[in-house]
Amino acid sequence: MSDLLDISTPAPGVVVLTLTRPDRLNTLNVRLVAALTAALDDIAADKSCRVVIITGAGRAFCAGLDLNGYGDPEREAEEGRPLATFGRQQDIAHLTERINSLPQPVIAAVNGPAAGGGLALVCASDIRIAAPEAVFAVSFITAGYSACDIGVSWLLPRIVGAGNAHELMLTGRRFDASHARSIGLISQVVDSENLLAESLRIAGEILNNPPISVEMTKKGMWLALETPTLHATVEFENRQQVITALTEDAAEATAAFLEKRTPTYRRR
């Protein structure tokens, strides 16, 4: 447990990760990155967790990297500036890969500004909803860095299309929740007081489906973005279908539907 990250379970099977640096707009520093990485590693191995929600405390989701200092000056003394800088970059960028590779679906509940690394966390998530107060920006380029950072150059074009992504990344401009909805970055805009409740409602719909079916669907959807042909995708889907069809949970889903009752899944 970290004072910079709150971990809660508001419903069975659902874990909420809340970034808790509200005085710094939940910007990323060495301690928050370490806490979030450790939490995601634990969740990946937790079979009781089936959906993850990421949000921020206060008025921001995550405003990117803490420009007042990352908080590990000793690293440069030990490793030298080039290796220390590269190590920090790897640690931060690993967050998007970890979110993307989690077996559980991740819902980003964007309660406020999501810029730079915060936008990367949003893009790495599987489902993205936002409050009207949310503001988005690539930000890296306006701070003097390449806009291609933390996986955004791969993720953003696949979510909003290459044309929209190029414009947002080359200008670094801020855009609101309404525009984010219009280009498909988020699926809906929800009043801030109902944002977590709507995230939990979506999580509940996911929980109605068999665990392994959900896990394989998440993996299949992301892999389809990397698969070069329809034929290769269909071959992969065929294997997913056979594996899920032969599970006990598939039979339980069918029985529960026919008997008009709530299914009980065992992930087997």
Q: Can you give a write-up of this model?
A:
With 268 residues, the protein is α/β, with parallel strands linked by helices. The protein is 49% helix and 14% strand. The chain has helices at residues 30-44, 73-79, 81-101, 117-124, 152-160, 162-171, 177-182, 195-207, 211-224, 230-245, 248-258, and strands spanning 5-11, 14-19, 51-56, 106-110, 114-115, 127-130, 135-137, 175-176, 188-189. A six-stranded mixed beta sheet has the order 1-2-3-4-6-9, sandwiched between helices. Helix 1 (30-44) packs parallel to helix 3 and helix 9 (211-224) runs antiparallel to helix 10 (230-245). The chain starts with a strand and ends in a 10-residue tail after the last helix.
